[in-house]
Design brief:
CATH architecture: 4-Layer Sandwich
Number of domains: 1
CATH superfamily: CNF1/YfiH-like putative cysteine hydrolases
Distance between the termini: 27 Å
CATH class: Alpha Beta
Number of helices: 6
Helix content: 10-25%
Radius of gyration: 17 Å
Number of strands: 14
Structural class: alpha+beta
Order of helices and strands: EEHEEEEEEHHEEHEEHEHE
Length: about 260
């Protein structure tokens, strides 16, 4: 299959280049078929390098100019002034830059990738939001970092990429408590699950809600469910349910042209 990626209204900003890449169009085989972009997986490292090169080519970037972080489910944001090598990747879950030609990359397989851009200033960011990062404010912290460049929340557009969908994310009953402790309104993002003692959590809906509460100018949800669409996306939950030994990750990238 050909390499494919999703774009959003962020493309209306003339200096922004971005893509939420699917699992299609890569060089990996087996359970990593085919555009696995995670060196942290047990996939062949040369295949991963080729896959990242394909992502870079699709967005007209130099392969070495796509930077990623060692994602740790935190609310830490790092500023990127120049590309770093993979062995120098800091522990963080979001990146922000005002430098042209640097691709900010996020790897996911059910967690939510969020790409951000200012409408009127050349500043972009990317964040990785699993439930822990979402709860502790990685999305809001990324938006706050735009203020370092004089950009107010109302000037920021956020796009939430493919992640585990609002009908697919089954959790245990006690998962809900820290969300309710944070804000009773968060109860709206939980519904009864099919199994006793379980709920369904709406991760993208929760992220949209939190971003809107801090006054972000616009929030786009691609409404793509990674668990439900095996043809297009890797899914950690799917791998767990099947008892497979490992899984691939798709990449989401944003850059200033």
């Amino acid at each position: 299959m050909a390499l494919t990626f999703l774009t959003t209204g962020l493309d209306d900003i003339k200096w922004v280049s971005h893509g939420f890449f699917t699992r299609q169009g890569g060089a990996s085989g087996g359970i990593y078929n085919s555009l696995n972009c995670a060196f942290s997986s047990d996939d062949d490292k040369e295949a991963v390098r080729l896959n990242r090169g394909k992502v870079a080519e699709a967005l007209h970037l130099e392969p070495d100019n796509i930077v990623t972080v060692y994602q740790v489910h935190s609310n830490k944001v790092v500023t990127v002034n120049e590309p770093w090598t993979r062995d120098k990747s800091p522990q963080a879950d979001a990146l922000i830059t005002d430098k042209r030609g640097i691709g900010l990359g996020i790897l996911t397989a059910d967690c939510a990738p969020i790409l951000f851009a200012s409408k009127n200033a050349k500043v972009v960011a990317a964040a990785h939001a699993g439930w822990k990062g979402a709860l502790t404010g990685i999305a809001e912290e990324t938006v706050r970092n735009f203020s370092h460049y004089g950009v107010a929340p109302g000037d920021v557009i956020a796009a939430i990429g493919p992640c585990i969908g609002p009908q697919s994310y089954e959790v245990k009953d006690d998962f809900k408590k820290p969300f309710l402790d944070q804000d009773a309104e968060n109860g709206q993002f939980f519904q009864a699950g099919a199994r006793a003692g379980h709920l369904i959590f709406d991760l993208p809906g929760y992220l949209v809600h939190r971003l809107r509460k801090i006054g972000v100018g616009a929030v786009i949800d691609t409404k793509q469910d990674t668990l439900g669409n095996e043809t297009s996306f890797f899914s950690y939950r799917r791998t767990t349910l099947r008892g497979e030994k490992d899984y691939g990750r798709q990449m989401s990238v944003i850059a200033i042209r």
